[in-house]
């Protein structure tokens, strides 16, 4: 009897040991598996597995963009249709990445949270009838789009903390840069500016251009200024008045005595034939902020005199403009203008860049479409917390030049 009990215990005991052994075995195997599968030994295979599981990244999915608001009364934001598909993006806008649909039709997709991006124009108030989307998906990007300087913002940005995921403005640190004009290197075809540090070509030592030389001899007036906002944050009106005390500045538009209708070809021609300088003074002193006036002037045979908050070397090649903020006083600026305007060789030398660069304007929607396709963009969450500070802190009230 006692023998039987003992052998029974023995069996129990050996079963327990077996179980324990199996447990240890399984545990060891699991640990071994983890170690073998760890990046320590297996880094390439892990990546390979992951990439094989991914769908082919080359086949681009179409992204959809909804224009939620108008752009200054234009529901099409200057595009040619209410809805543009990949074909229009490729053939009309000439977008390198064109797999997008852009629409202002709110019912283009069955639900508002299906759009990949929704664009809001911040220089206009939200419409009372259609404030903000009621549903929002965490995968969507809300885009803060504006071409005007911060002083023209018509949104209460302190109410929009964390609302926007992307910015689309003229500022070079925006997610999508939306400039008034761009310069292309004629030889390479590459867009070189605006950019943080454009690879400018060296200005040739000698440059001559008989067209400008001949125009120069007929230019009898110093400077023209076209202006419709008379009192500005930049105080450009004071700079212009002080210049006017030194030489004639012809002021066209609401703030002056002269008139020339917008779009009248004679107005543009007289910049070629009559005037030496074109005042491209901005209404605000903000980083990277220059307007179409500057680019319009560059199309004519006239030297722009710029005044603004931008670092103009990010926008234009050296010696193609005269920056008022590079001078300490208005007298210094005026003296330099008299020198350049009085010497035809010097005057003509400001047009050297035309042999190397061409002005173009491209659509920011190409870049927005491309951004929505950047691998990794859909895997990352980003938003602007204090959008008001991001936007407003780029402006100043004080300029360099003294008057
Ligand atoms: C530039 O060209 C003009 C007109 O063709 C000519 O009169 C002038 O002498 C030239 N200037 C120089 C420095 O070659
Ligand atoms: C956009 O921002 C919101 C926060 O307001 C966030 O919940 C969402 O995930 C962000 N989307 C993307 C695509 O980054």
Overview of this protein structure:
With 403 residues, the protein is of the alpha/beta class. The protein has two domains: 61-180 and 367-396, no CATH class; 197-360, Glycosyl transferase family 10, C-terminal domain (Rossmann fold, 3-Layer(aba) Sandwich), CATH 3.40.50.11660. The protein contains eleven helices and 17 strands. It has helices at residues 2-37, 39-53, 86-91, 210-218, 236-246, 265-273, 292-298, 330-342, 344-349, 364-373, 387-392; strands at 63-67, 83-84, 100-103, 117-121, 141-145, 166-169, 176-177, 182-185, 191-193, 221-226, 249-252, 275-281, 285-286, 303-307, 322-323, 357-360, 395-396. The strands form four sheets. It has a seven-stranded mixed β-sheet. It has a five-stranded parallel β-sheet with strand order 11-10-12-14-15, with helices on both faces. It has a three-stranded antiparallel β-sheet with strand order 9-8-16, with no helix packed on it. Strand 8 (182-185) and strand 9 (191-193) form a beta hairpin. Bound molecules: 2-acetamido-2-deoxy-beta-D-glucopyranose (2 copies). Residues 138-139, 141, 162-163, 165, 381-383 line the site of one 2-acetamido-2-deoxy-beta-D-glucopyranose.
């Amino acid at each position: 009897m006692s023998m039987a009990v003992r052998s029974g215990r023995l069996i129990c005991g050996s079963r327990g040991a077996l179980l324990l052994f199996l447990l240890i075995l399984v545990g060891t195997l699991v640990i071994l598996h983890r170690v073998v599968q760890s990046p320590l030994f297996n880094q390439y295979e892990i990546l390979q597995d992951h990439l094989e599981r991914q769908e082919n990244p080359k086949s681009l999915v179409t992204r959809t963009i909804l224009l939620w608001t108008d752009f200054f009364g234009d529901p099409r934001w200057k595009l040619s249709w209410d809805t543009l598909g990949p074909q229009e993006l490729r053939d009309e806008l000439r977008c390198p990445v064109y797999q997008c649909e852009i629409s202002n039709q709110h019912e283009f997709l069955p639900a508002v949270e299906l759009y990949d991006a929704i664009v809001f124009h911040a220089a206009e108030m939200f419409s009372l009838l259609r404030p903000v989307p009621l549903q929002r998906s965490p995968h969507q990007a809300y885009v803060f789009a504006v071409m005007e300087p911060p002083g023209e913002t018509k949104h209460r940005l302190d109410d929009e903390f964390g609302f926007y995921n992307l910015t689309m403005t003229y500022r070079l640190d925006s997610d999508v840069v939306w400039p008034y004009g761009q310069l292309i290197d004629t030889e390479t075809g590459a867009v070189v500016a605006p950019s943080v540090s454009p690879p400018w070509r060296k200005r040739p030592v000698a440059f001559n251009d008989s067209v400008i030389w001949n125009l120069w001899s007929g230019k009898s007036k110093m400077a023209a200024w076209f202006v419709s906002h008379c009192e500005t944050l930049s105080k450009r009106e004071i700079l212009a008045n002080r210049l006017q005390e030194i030489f004639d500045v012809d002021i066209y538009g609401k703030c002056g005595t002269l008139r020339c209708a917008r779009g009248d070809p004679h107005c543009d021609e007289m910049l070629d034939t009559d005037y030496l300088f074109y005042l491209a003074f901005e209404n605000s002193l903000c980083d990277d902020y220059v307007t179409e006036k500057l680019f319009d002037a560059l199309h004519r045979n006239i030297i722009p005199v710029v005044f603004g908050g931008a670092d103009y070397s990010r926008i234009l090649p050296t010696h193609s403009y005269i920056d008022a903020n590079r001078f300490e006083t208005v007298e210094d600026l005026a003296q330099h203008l008299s020198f350049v305007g009085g010497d035809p060789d010097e005057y003509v030398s400001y047009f050297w860049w035309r042999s190397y660069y061409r002005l173009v304007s491209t659509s920011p929607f190409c870049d927005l479409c491309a951004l929505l396709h950047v691998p990794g963009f859909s895997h990352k969450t980003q938003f602007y917390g204090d959008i008001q500070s991001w936007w407003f802190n780029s402006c100043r009230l004080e300029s360099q030049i003294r008057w």
